[in-house]
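Tip: read the tokens left to right.
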């Protein structure tokens, strides 16, 4: 099965003036993160369960998750691997060429999704 076909459809405004990294984020990263959300959340849950989130503000939750993902390099790389493993060959080639910037975008999106999920 084609990797692109299994990705959920997301609505995002795309235009020809977008920079390539932004276009990649909206057409590739966001759908893959949405596809992989449950497994990413399951993976992060073990680490997050060590903190009582009920008393933390949204900002504090975000800071904690950022700290975890930036300090725990093995966990960050595992999360990025869960995302990049769903790329097509061409997408992976673009990812490798723009590794640093794309990783930052992936982590930023993951943080936002996890914080949003924890509001429930």
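Filled-in amino acids:
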């Amino acid at each position: 099965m084609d990797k692109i076909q299994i990705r959920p459809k997301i609505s995002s405004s795309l235009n020809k003036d977008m920079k390539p990294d932004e276009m990649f984020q909206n057409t590739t990263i966001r759908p893959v993160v949405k596809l992989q959300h449950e497994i990413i959340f399951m993976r992060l849950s073990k680490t997050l369960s060590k903190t009582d989130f009920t008393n933390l503000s949204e900002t504090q939750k975000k800071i904690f998750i950022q700290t975890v993902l930036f300090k725990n390099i093995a966990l960050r790389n595992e999360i990025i691997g869960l995302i990049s493993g769903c790329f097509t060959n061409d997408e992976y080639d673009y990812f490798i060429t723009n590794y640093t910037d794309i990783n930052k975008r992936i982590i930023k999106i993951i943080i936002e999704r996890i914080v949003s999920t924890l509001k429930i």
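The chain has one domain: 21-46+61-118. The mean pLDDT is 89.
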